[in-house]
Amino acid sequence: MAKVVTNQDLQLRDPFVIPVPEEGVYYLFGSTDRNIWGKGIGFDVYVGKDLNAWDGPYAAFRPEADFYAENNFWAPEVYKHQERCYMFATFRRKDNNLLGTAVLVSDSLRGPFVPHSDGPVTPKDWSSLDGTLYIDEAGLPWMVFCHEWQQVADGQVCAMRLSLDLRESAGEPVVLFTASEAPWTTSFQHPRYPDQDNYVTDGPSMYRAKNGELLMLWASFINNTYALGVARSASGSVLGPWVQDAEALYQSDGGHAMLFEALDGRLMLAIHTPNQTPNERPLFLEVEEQEGRLRVVAEARGKISNWLR
């Protein structure tokens, strides 16, 4: 049954916010299974007016018995496109146990969402996650996504053209950059891969700055702590080349970000923090933008994150 829940009590990873000014509310999606590392139940949506108190959960997606995935339902992002609502979400396939991003569709932000693509649209033999939609200057759709570090060691961010109806790929994936190219990332050793340095790419999100620059927010790790960085396209195109900012935008165990304009006009950053289950919570921080450079407003960071300490 739906009830009111505040950010402090809301277990949610990978927050994705859709402001709806005509309704005076925000819709909040995210990875909402209590154990996102295990069997997937589905995705919920919450509705609120102030980015703190939310009505919900409302069931946005529940899989049918013959759904192609059973575990790891991650990172739903929802877009209004061509008069319908499309959800990009990551699932672990049953047939090969690899992650991939699929597309679901609904006529309403509240759902119910149903499969739109025939399984994940990312390459079948890749372990891919966190697909995000980008519409280029010509009006053509792309998916920007991560090629997982567990398969390539140095995690990649890739872009791939989509068909106009968003049902399938319309080209081969292109590697935009690897995690180790950023000056701020550090490697880590994993017991499963003891002889290699591993670098994570996670949660890419596109943003066109006021000065016209195309930015990408993406997450990785600094000394095993979750962090958020910014890359910028030197050409203004999704294909780059991409230049990494020297320092992380946020490095206090938070990431998987997106930017949105609040109902009062402020530019807001949505992340989850901390990065440990079941303690992850949505966090919304005001951001200042000057000539394409982003800065988290210090007062907002201190005020909102006090309860996390």
TrEMBL record:
One of its GO terms (biological process) is carbohydrate metabolic process. Pfam families: Glyco_hydro_43. Keywords: Glycosidase, Hydrolase. Gene3D superfamilies: Glycosyl hydrolase domain, family 43. InterPro entries: GH43_arabinanases (IPR050727), Glyco_hydro_43 (IPR006710), Glyco_hydro_beta-prop_sf (IPR023296). CDD domains: GH43_Bt1873-like. It comes from the Bacteria. GO terms for molecular function: hydrolase activity, hydrolyzing O-glycosyl compounds. Pathway: Glycan metabolism; L-arabinan degradation. Signal peptide: none annotated. SUPFAM superfamilies: Arabinanase/levansucrase/invertase (SSF75005). Belongs to the glycosyl hydrolase 43 family. PANTHER family: ARABINAN ENDO-1,5-ALPHA-L-ARABINOSIDASE, ARABINAN ENDO-1,5-ALPHA-L-ARABINOSIDASE A-RELATED. This is Family 43 glycosylhydrolase. It comes from Paenibacillus cremeus.
